């Protein structure tokens, strides 16, 4: 049985090391080969393969470590070294939902510390611990680049903006009761940890274009600049490019760039939802 307390080590008890059954192993191998084929060097596939393991086991298990090592011709020490470096790789069984309270500077002063205290006391667990029903793993998280909506709480890396202690307690209770919970921005519904892990392994769930990518607070500066006719100094970007260097188009940059103040929903990008609808 995987532990639920905070741990600095991979949890590699006997159950964690028990082999996959033949059907699970065959499916894992088939998926892993798809992922590995995307990279010129197979070892570059380690991060997505660790997410793939989490999509099956709910954390990086001992057998998952061995599976990655075998698929990538690495040592288990190589794989463990990577798995223990990144906080997104869980060292013991994760809850169905990771709820991360941002307690970095801006969110903290805007109420993140109070949210943390309230939800931690409400659930009776601390950082990197999981509720007894297996539904919620609570984490303190660092800045999520969503400071314009501080204080921010993440539910399986979906944004819950402008939170309060009461709204976050409501969030965890809704998740625990099995309700569909919609984040403030992005996907229409918070998925489970295993479902999200599969997406992070590189298997898209077709939901990347749901919702808006940038809300009003993010666009406010652009809106003001547009109203006042402000623009970046001409040539500033070009001055940073060394003589003779060619700039490379980024994905989605073809065609007219969005004007300042335009919404940057992923649905607006070439190939996005609106583009697909238009093509039908
Ligand atoms: S400090 Fe919390 S999102 Fe930036």
Regions with little confidence, pLDDT below 50 for 5+ residues: 1-7, 244-258, 264-280
Mean pLDDT: 85
Distinct bound molecules: FE2/S2 (inorganic) cluster
Biggest sheet layout: 5 strands, mixed
Distance between the termini: 50 Å
Beta-strand content bin: 5-15%
Largest beta sheet: strand ordering: 2-3-1-4-5
CATH architecture of the domain at 97-191: 3-Layer(aba) Sandwich
Global Rg: 22 Å
Helical residues, percent: 40-55%
Q: Given this structure, which CATH class of the domain at 97-191 is correct? A: Alpha Beta
CATH superfamily of the domain at 97-191: Glutaredoxin
* Total strands: 5
**What shape does the CA trace take?**
globular
Question: H/E order of the elements?
Answer: HHHHHEHEEEEHHHHH
- The computed structural class is alpha+beta
CATH fold descriptor of the domain at 97-191: Glutaredoxin
H/I helix tally:
11
Features:
single chain; about 280 residues; alpha+beta; Glutaredoxin; five-stranded mixed β-sheet; 11 helices; disordered N terminus; disordered C terminus; binds FE2/S2 (inorganic) cluster
Protein architecture, described:
Among the domains are: 3-83, no CATH class; 97-191, Glutaredoxin (3-Layer(aba) Sandwich). The protein has helices at residues 14-17, 22-36, 46-57, 62-72, 76-83, 105-123, 165-176, 193-200, 216-228, 236-239, 273-279; strands at residues 97-102, 129-130, 136-141, 153-155, 158-160. Helix 2 (22-36) packs antiparallel against helix 3 and helix 4 (62-72) packs across helix 5 (76-83). It is α+β, with helices and mostly antiparallel strands. A hairpin with a 2-residue loop joins strand 4 (153-155) and strand 5 (158-160). The protein is globular, with a radius of gyration of 22 Å. The protein has a five-stranded mixed beta sheet. The structure holds FE2/S2 (inorganic) cluster. FE2/S2 (inorganic) cluster binds at residues 102, 104-107, 143-144, 146-147, 150, 152. FE2/S2 (inorganic) cluster binds next to helix 6.
């Amino acid at each position: 049985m995987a532990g639920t307390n905070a741990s600095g080590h991979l949890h590699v008890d006997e159950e964690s090391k028990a082999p996959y059954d033949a059907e699970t192993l065959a499916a894992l191998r088939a998926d892993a080969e798809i992922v590995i084929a995307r990279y010129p060097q197979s070892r570059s596939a380690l991060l997505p393969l660790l997410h793939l393991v989490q999509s099956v086991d709910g954390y990086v298990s001992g057998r998952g470590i061995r599976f990655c090592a075998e698929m990538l011709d690495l040592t288990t020490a190589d794989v463990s070294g990577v798995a223990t470096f990144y906080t997104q790789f869980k060292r013991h069984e994760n809850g169905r939902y990771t709820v991360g309270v941002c307690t970095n500077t801006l969110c903290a002063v805007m109420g993140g510390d109070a949210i943390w205290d309230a939800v931690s006391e409400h659930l009776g667990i601390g950082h990197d611990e999981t509720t007894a029903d297996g539904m919620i793993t609570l984490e303190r998280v660092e800045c999520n680049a969503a400071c314009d909506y501080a204080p921010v709480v993440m539910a399986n890396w979906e944004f819950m903006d402008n939170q309060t202690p009461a709204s976050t307690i409501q969030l965890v209770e809704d998740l625990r009761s099995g309700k569909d919970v919609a984040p403030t921005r992005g996907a229409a519904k918070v998925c489970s940890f295993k479902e999200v892990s599969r997406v992070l392994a590189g298997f898209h769930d077709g939901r990347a274009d749901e919702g808006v990518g940038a809300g009003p607070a993010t666009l406010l500066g652009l809106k003001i600049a547009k109203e006042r006719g402000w623009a970046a100094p001409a040539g500033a970007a070009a001055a940073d490019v060394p003589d003779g260097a060619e700039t490379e188009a980024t994905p989605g940059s073809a065609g007219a760039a969005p004007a300042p103040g335009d919404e940057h929903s992923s649905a607006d990008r070439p190939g996005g939802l609106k583009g697909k609808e238009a093509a039908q």
